[in-house]
């Protein structure tokens, strides 16, 4: 359906046919705020993403159309050609980052659309970047490896979109595999696939449809707390580069030397790094009850120790608990966005009904519901 819409528009605008590429958004099952602490994250690609039709046009210009925004942009491939429209800067950034890595590319025509909900923490921007990085690599036979494609997306965020993000979103979008989650070591960038076949369960995101303004300043403050705690521990244990290397015993040794706030933040991170490893072990045994328990522990830590939840997310987490949902937690940086829920199929209908009714009664608007399935990463469709 979406693909057909893109093809029709491409034909209408450019009177020709191109190649079609897709990249997914992602969820992160567990491992939040661990990336900048050198720890592990545990994402998976989902069955929602971006699709683009692309064809080289033999000029030095890119002519791009966004179906979702009904907007057109045209730009060159040199640094001074940066387009005004923020959506077009993602495509421009991917072109520039590819060129910086020695990729010989030319102008192209493109039409794209997506079904990753914007602002719900499923990383629509990484899906867009990965689609174009993968497509340019394929169309112009550049032989850039997959890790570099993910880094092209990340560098686009840093250098052209003003977001100092980690590598997880782009990594998941490029490396995703149906039926698998990926444990990524954010320090060494080593990764491993783990089976995710929750037979009898659904994976559901409930979007609170709120975004609190605290996010960026609070993020920087928490990052600083983690660095303070790691530095204090390092004085006794020089081998501790990040909190990922620390234990609770090490943290307790310096409890008197750091603020209560820094201690709480560090406690959450040290426990969260371990939870990712525990969930990996559980998945290898198909033990989804343990996975769920760890998700609840993460929510508690994010709410009470890291303090990045909010009233709406805590409410959705409480409803999940009350309805016997196997696992539930805030997903993403916090202060709004979604909860991710692992729900037994027989409890699904009652949970969704209760969540919608009680949330609407309390906050005056409905949450949004997204059922997600773990799917493949960046690929060529046609």
UniProtKB/TrEMBL annotation:
Residues annotated as domain Galactokinase N-terminal: 8-56
Keyword terms, alphabetized: ATP-binding, Carbohydrate metabolism, Cytoplasm, Galactose metabolism, Kinase, Magnesium, Metal-binding, Nucleotide-binding, Transferase
Gene this chain is encoded by: galK
Keyword Cytoplasm tagged: yes
PANTHER family xref list: GALACTOKINASE-RELATED, MEVALONATE KINASE/GALACTOKINASE
Pfam families assigned to the protein according to its UniProt record, in alphabetical order: GalKase_gal_bdg, GHMP_kinases_C, GHMP_kinases_N
Top EC category: transferase
GO cellular component: cytosol
GO molecular function: ATP binding; galactokinase activity; metal ion binding
Membrane spanning residue stretches: none
Name the record gives this protein: Galactokinase
Record lineage: Bacteria, Pseudomonadati, Bacteroidota, Bacteroidia, Bacteroidales
Positions of the GHMP kinase C-terminal domain: 282-358
Record family assignment: Belongs to the GHMP kinase family. GalK subfamily.
GO annotation, biological process: galactose metabolic process
Domain GHMP kinase N-terminal residue range list: 90-177
EC number: 2.7.1.6
């Amino acid at each position: 359906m979406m693909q057909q819409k893109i093809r029709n528009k491409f034909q209408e605008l450019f009177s020709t046919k191109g190649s079609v590429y897709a990249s997914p958004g992602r969820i992160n099952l567990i491992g939040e705020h661990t990336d900048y602490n050198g720890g592990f994250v545990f994402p998976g690609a989902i069955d929602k993403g971006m699709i683009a039709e692309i064809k080289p046009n033999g000029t030095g210009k890119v002519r791009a159309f966004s179906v979702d925004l009904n907007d057109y942009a045209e730009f060159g491939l040199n640094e001074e050609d940066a387009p005004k429209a923020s959506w077009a800067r993602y495509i421009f950034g991917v072109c520039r980052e590819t060129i910086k890595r020695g990729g010989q590319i030319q102008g192209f025509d493109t039409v794209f659309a997506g079904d990753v909900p914007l602002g719900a923490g499923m990383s629509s921007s990484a899906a867009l970047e990965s689609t174009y990085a993968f497509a340019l690599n394929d169309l112009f036979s550049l032989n850039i490896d997959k890790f570099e494609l993910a880094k092209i997306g990340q560098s686009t965020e840093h250098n052209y979109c003003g977001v100092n993000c980690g590598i997880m979103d782009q990594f998941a979008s490029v490396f995703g595999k149906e039926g698998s989650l990926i444990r990524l070591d954010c320090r060494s960038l080593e990764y491993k696939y783990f089976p995710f076949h929750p037979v009898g369960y659904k994976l559901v995101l409930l979007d609170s449809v709120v975004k609190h303004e605290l996010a960026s300043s609070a993020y920087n403050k928490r990052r600083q707390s983690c660095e303070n705690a790691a530095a204090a521990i390092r004085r006794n244990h020089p081998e501790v580069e990040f909190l990922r290397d620390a234990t609770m015993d090490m943290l307790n040794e310096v409890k008197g030397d750091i603020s209560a706030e820094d201690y709480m933040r560090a406690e959450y991170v040290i426990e969260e790094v371990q939870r990712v490893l525990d969930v990996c072990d559980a998945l290898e045994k198909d033990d989804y009850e343990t996975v769920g328990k760890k998700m609840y522990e993460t929510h508690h830590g994010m709410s009470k120790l890291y303090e990045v939840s909010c009233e709406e997310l805590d409410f959705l987490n409480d409803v999940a608990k009350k309805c016997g949902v196997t696992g539930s937690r805030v997903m993403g940086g916090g202060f709004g966005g979604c909860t991710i829920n692992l729900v037994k199929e027989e409890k699904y209908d009652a949970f969704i009904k209760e969540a919608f009714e009680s949330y609407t009664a309390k906050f005056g608007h409905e949450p949004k519901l997204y059922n997600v399935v773990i799917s493949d990463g960046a690929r060529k469709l046609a």
